[in-house]
Design brief:
With about 220 residues, this protein is α/β, with parallel strands linked by helices. The chain contains 9 helices and 6 strands; from the N terminus they run αααββαβαααβββαα.
């Protein structure tokens, strides 16, 4: 297989990961509809990646999508500080605590737990592939039952540079680009897109909440 073919396959990683959802069966929203949550408490995320800074960067992307879907989202940084004051300073402790107790602290209808499975960049000589992978689980603040769960993976590889006519210069340019992305990859846009896909995709995401004009009008999609 040629280098050009390998690069083409890597460049399509984003499309392959996001496009495969079309064949996934629609989720069962029976419990979600019965519970009908109006607010979502996003607790500190569990980090299973090798990047210790991943949770802080991710939290900056977590609020917007839920709000756009029509739910009241508690301010994530305020939630983090209040949980720390209540003795739940570690994300793993929060995730293992009783969801009803956590929800009661804030008066929330539901609690959203998120685990970062991957947040990394892999260097492959002429390119760097950046990957994020998350697991989402929404639990009832009243019963503790799981109302919705989902996993999302996003992959990005910088597009191939146009040829300058000088093979050696092109090779050096690709090596430099790959090294730059490896040294300082930008995960935030990927995290935002993953959250968008996770929440709005028909049959997989969150049905419209009470502050969205599609509330209870999207039954055929969710």
């Amino acid at each position: 297989m040629t280098k050009k073919s390998l690069f083409f396959i890597a460049s399509l990683g984003f499309l392959l990961v996001t496009g495969c959802a079309a064949s996934i069966p629609k989720k069962d929203y029976t419990k979600f509809r019965t519970e009908d949550p109006k607010s979502i408490l996003i607790v500190p995320v569990v980090n299973r990646s090798v990047d210790v800074d991943a949770p802080d960067y991710f939290l900056s992307t977590a609020t917007l999508r839920g709000a756009e879907r029509g739910y009241y989202i508690f301010p994530v940084n305020l939630v983090k500080h209040l949980l720390e004051d209540d003795g739940l300073s570690d994300a793993d402790l929060v995730h293992s605590a009783d969801p009803t107790r956590v929800a009661e602290l804030f008066g929330a209808d539901s609690v959203l737990y998120i685990a970062i499975q991957r947040w990394d960049a892999k260097y492959l000589l002429l390119s760097t592939t950046v990957t994020v992978e998350f697991e989402y689980s929404l639990k009832s603040g009243r019963t503790g039952e799981t109302l919705w769960e989902h996993s999302e993976t996003m992959v990005y590889s910088p597009s191939q540079q146009q040829s300058s006519g000088n093979p050696l210069a092109d090779l050096i340019a690709q090596l430099v680009m790959a090294a730059v992305v490896k040294a300082k990859p930008n995960y935030v846009p990927l995290a935002r897109q993953a959250n968008l896909n996770a929440t709005v995709r028909e049959g997989q995401g969150l049905p419209a909440g009470p502050y969205n004009k599609k509330y209870k009008k999207d039954m055929d999609q969710f």
